[in-house]
Amino acid sequence: MTDTLVTGAQAAPAKPATRPARPHFSSGPCAKPPGWDAAKLNVEVLGRSHRSKLGKTRLQYCIDLMRELLRLPDTHRIGIVPGSDTGAFEMAMWTMLGARPVTTLAWESFGEGWVTDAAKQLKLDPNVIRADYGQLPDLAQVDFSHDVLFTWNGTTSGVRVPNGDWIAADREGLTFADATSAVFAYDLPWDKIDVATFSWQKVLGGEGAHGVLILGPRAVERLETYTPAWPLPKVFRLVSKGKLAEGVFKGETI
């Protein structure tokens, strides 16, 4: 595993002068939006299987709402998967990594988690670009002939990449963005993101049981043309008979 430590690459951001009006947030589930009340929830699906006609319809509706809110292009698929953001990101790593060299960026705990799994679980010997906690690494160092793993916004440090300008438009590898603390809070450049993952618990203040996996067309192509060298747990499998398992992206949640 090659490792680069970048210290002082970018100055730590100044502390904001304005305090939040509602300080009830954390790195886990966040505050509910103003006016939220459990009594307003539609309970017709309670006690029903997610595989029922009603359950699948509601999951597809949730996917449609996310596409609308995120202004996601029709070229990208949205799937609801088990295991929160962690499950979604692990699913992406296990099914798509290994075809190219891997670069991982780490400047806080969640990014370090993906470094550990790429190196110790998948045995990929990634190129690791690190920065001290509270800072960003030098993004100009990234080789986009590699698959690149990074967190868009560090959940525990609050340090985020400035935008998508640093990501090569003509990249050969795939970009894997852990966007769980960024999606719905920032306008993300979907043309620069091949794989994005998140859970509803962060920005939306929802529960953390499910993750969301967004795949761009280049990620779908990787899935349909590449078979990993390691065995895949059934819960991670996104391909059936050489084609993307489209049902996962139509409300047929595993």
Q: Could you walk me through the main structural features you see in this protein, from its secondary elements to its overall organization?
A:
- With 254 residues, the protein is of the alpha/beta class.
- It has a domain at 78-245: Aspartate Aminotransferase, domain 2 (3-Layer(aba) Sandwich).
- Helix content is 21%, strand content 18%.
- It is built from four helices and ten strands.
- It has helices spanning 53-70, 84-96, 109-121, 217-225, and strands spanning 2-6, 77-82, 102-106, 127-131, 147-151, 175-178, 195-199, 210-215, 239-240, 243-244.
- The strands form two sheets. The protein has an eight-stranded mixed β-sheet, sandwiched between helices. It has a two-stranded antiparallel sheet with strand order 9-10.
Provide tags for this entry.
254 residues; alpha/beta; Aspartate Aminotransferase, domain 2; two-stranded antiparallel ribbon; 21% helix
Give the helices and strands, then pairings.
Layout: E1 2-6, H1 53-70, E2 77-82, H2 84-96, E3 102-106, H3 109-121, E4 127-131, E5 147-151, E6 175-178, E7 195-199, E8 210-215, H4 217-225, E9 239-240, E10 243-244
Parallel strand pairs: 1-4, 3-4, 3-5, 5-6, 6-7
Antiparallel strand pairs: 2-8, 7-8, 9-10
